[in-house]
Amino acid sequence: MTFDSADFTIDLRKIRLLRELSARGTVAATAAALHLTPSAVSQQLAGLGRELGVPLLERRGRGVALTGQARLLLSHADAVQEQLELTRAALASWSGGGVGEVRIGSLATGIAALVAPAIARLGVERPELTVRTSEFDGPAALELLDAGELDLIVVSDFLGAPTRQDARYHRVDLIVDIMDAVLPIDHPLADPRGVRLADLAGEVWVGAEPGDSCSHIVTGVCAAAGFVPDTRHYCKEWDAVAALVSAGAGVALIPRLAFPLRQQDVAICPVLGRPASRVLFALARAGTQLDPATATVVDAMRAIASERPDGAAAPGDAAQS
Questions:
Q1: For residue 152, is it left (φ>0), alpha (ψ between -120 and 50) or beta?
Q2: In a 10 Å sphere around its CB, with 0-12 CB exposed, 13-18 middle and 19+ buried, how is residue 83 labelled?
Q3: How many helices, marked H, and strands, marked E, lie in the chain?
Q4: CA 240: distance to chain centroid?
Q5: What are the distances in angstroms from CA 177 to CA 155, 201, 236, 309, 314?
Q6: Residue 30: predicted pLDDT
Q7: Is the preceding peptide bond at 229 cis, omega within 30 degrees of 0?
Q8: Burial class of 252 by CB neighbour count within 10 A (0 to 12, 13 to 18, 19+)
Q9: Quick one: how far is CA 278 from the chain centroid?
Q10: What number of other Cβ atoms are within 10 A of residue 86's Cβ?
Q11: Does 85 have pLDDT greater than 80?
Q12: What is the pLDDT of residues 98-138, one digit of tens each?
């Protein structure tokens, strides 16, 4: 075998014999340490020399000594052993969710409330785990998840979202995001103790864009309260909604995970009775939730969600599919 051959290989088990011989000095001591016979040690080292085409041992009196080629081989073998140990550690870390890359698509409030804090925590606890995040609404995020361009999405239920029974996905509910009524600060119904939605039936409303998950929630809870909201203003950002409310353009329902708002001169009132809310959940393609890195990120977001004072507990494992 030539040293530039593509078939050049080294039996690492025989390298261990050579290393032990270098450390212990005699074939007999090496054999005893490795629970082998002296003849077995000699035969394997002779075989390694033949495989490499170089002499590894030379006679010294009644014993043997390592040749210069053998010492050179061991110097490189030490580097190989180090790489093997690093590989073993990396594989163990992978199995424990300590390394890898997870690509997340999330709605903006999900990034601010859950994804970003989870990244900060994992940066300390799992520094070799890379999380890449992009902001997407529900339908766009789901499309990228299906295409394999995202590993995980954080969304709330939207029109056309998968049902909990959809076998193509694994869903983990993270947090219930309660929505509060936001009124102009001088509005006669502004009361920090709360307001009934039915009392806002005659108001002009500021809302999320039609088709947004929050828009459907607002329409639904207002219908349950006996009216259709007169929505005249539509915004993508909750700060823009609050700015219009502050300007007296209308009232709104804003999820608590969107707080604090840059617009401070508004009245935030809990909804009396059954409050409006949405569930933020993580969604992965079925089976990929078993990937250790993905599971680690989900666990971190669940921990962050459980610690937040502004959300309610998610429905729990019974509600997951």
A1: beta
A2: exposed
A3: 10, 12
A4: 30
A5: 11, 23, 18, 11, 9
A6: 87
A7: no
A8: buried
A9: 22
A10: 10
A11: no
A12: 778 999 999 999 999 999 999 999 999 999 899 999 999 88
**Domains, in order of start, for the chain:** 12-95 (1.10.10.10), 106-173+281-319 (3.40.190.10), 176-277 (3.40.190.10)
Residue linked to tokens 């309260």: 225
Three-state DSSP class for 53? Answer: coil
Closest listed residue to residue 97, CA positions, set 257, 238, 291, 315: 291
Per-residue pLDDT of 27-71, as tens digits, reads 888 888 888 898 898 898 888 888 888 888 888 888 888 888 888
Q: Are 14 and 44 in contact (CB under 8 A)?
A: yes
User: Is residue 297 very low, low, confident or very high in pLDDT (cuts 50, 70, 90)?
Assistant: very high
- Pairing verdict, β 276-285 and 152-156: antiparallel
CB contact at 8 A, 298 and 172: yes
Strand 230-235 to 204-208 pairing: parallel
Give the H or E element holding residue 130: strand 129-135
C-alpha to C-alpha distance for 35 and 21, rounded to whole angstroms: 13
Q: Which amino acid is at 35?
A: H
- Rounded to whole angstroms, the Cα distance separating 279 from 282 reads 10
Residue 148 tokens, joined: 């394999």
Query: Does position 8 have pLDDT exceeding 70, yes or no?
Result: no
Q: SS3 for 97?
A: coil
Q: Which helix (H) or strand (E) holds 223?
A: helix 213-224
Mean confidence (pLDDT) of the chain: 87
Please give the angle made by the CA atoms of 110, 111 and 112, to the nearest 5 degrees: 95
CB 219 within 8 A of CB 252: no
Mean pLDDT on 21-29:
87
Cβ-based neighbours of 285, under 8 Å, separated by 6 or more: 145, 146, 148, 168, 169, 170
